[in-house]
């Protein structure tokens, strides 16, 4: 496998350029210049690079050598080593006496940069493999030998119960999320068999491998940590601990709890849900019909919807609801009258209150 691809070579040039003013080139082991501070040299064959690739030794090129070797300029060329093999050549153009002093520093810096890039790609590959396996895990009804072998290769214990925790973060945080996710994942896993993967563009899925008595306290710490690092609100849904062959159900529970948690950027346990469970299970067509028969006439009236929200969040205390908006109590009664006229539902009657509350929940979704 060729470690140094043109894109990586360009990154090397970009980083090294911050330290040196001289022209720099990166060549592959075939002697082709694949990155350069001088665009005119891209794609040019460099005979000196071929020699360095074969010997694994640095090569100083003089002005006299320029007339004898193809594509070279005075300077120094050094092998880029990775795992004991020459993976490419990096060169500094200039007077050999002037640039030779930079040689070993440049070589070491480049090799460290490549090593970091390589292991980062390994981490990304492992993460993608784990994500694909978990998705497969959820959809499989029976575990084949191939599936069990994959689990073994990935170090996943399929005998343990799993508790799903689904974490939502704003998509706007995506640019800065990679290092945050890496640190978060490492801090959670530790020595346990807990799985942490990205789930789409705005969610993390944590699959705990054992039931924790202090889970709420732990998840609150996760929330604070992520919010501090991302500078944005985070919502978390938590499912029940279930056998590994019921992972799909564990995930759906966490997803259902997350939908409720999103409204207030809070932490919600699925086993705390009551009315929300019914709302989540209603078919889309039924939800739409219910809205049309209830609050559809006031969906374009933000003041009336805000009034309902105030009533629901203050247990139908008119005074507290009016103060929270804030409006005069008489204005509140006027709005309630408008709601009744538009919807045919009286906010002062328990049966109609329930219909309005369900409609408000569905509309919020």
Q: Could you list the spans in which at least 5 consecutive residues all have pLDDT below 50?
A: none
- The multimeric state of the shown protein is single chain
Profile the largest sheet: 5 strands, antiparallel
User: What structural class should be given to the helix and strand makeup?
Assistant: alpha+beta
Work out the number of β strands: 10
- Beta-sheet strand percentage? 15-25%
Q: What form results from the Cα inertia axes?
A: elongated
Task: State the helical fraction.
Answer: 40-55%
Specify the number of helices.
Answer: 15
User: What is the residue-averaged pLDDT?
Assistant: 87
**Rg:** 31 Å
Series of secondary-structure elements, N-terminal to C-terminal: HEEHEHEEHHHEHEEHEHEHHHHHH
Q: Give the terminus-to-terminus CA distance.
A: 49 Å
Spatial strand sequence of the major β-sheet: 2-1-5-4-3
